[in-house]
């Protein structure tokens, strides 16, 4: 019985010795590495989101610039059409006056 108690005490002492000497740093290191990886993934996701927002803003700005260019072109086209109509009106008026003057010359002013 004495050997059984001593053997149990020896096993208990060895178990406690090896259990208490286990390196806890590895577990902390793995946890720290996981946290760092998680933070890196979050930062990458934030950077990607910022890049997408910047790209969306650039597209919006380009669309606004294109809209402004279209508006300007439409305005210039309208102005050119109006000017051409005014010129045609003047030319028609000049031609009518010229015909009237020639008719007056031929009829002797009557």
Automatic annotation (TrEMBL):
Annotated region described as Disordered, given as residue ranges: 73-110
Species of the source: Bizionia sediminis
Domain of life: Bacteria
Name of the protein described by the UniProt record: YtxH domain-containing protein
Biased composition (Basic and acidic residues): 86-104
Keywords: Signal
PROSITE patterns linked: PROKAR_LIPOPROTEIN (PS51257)
Signal peptide: 1-22
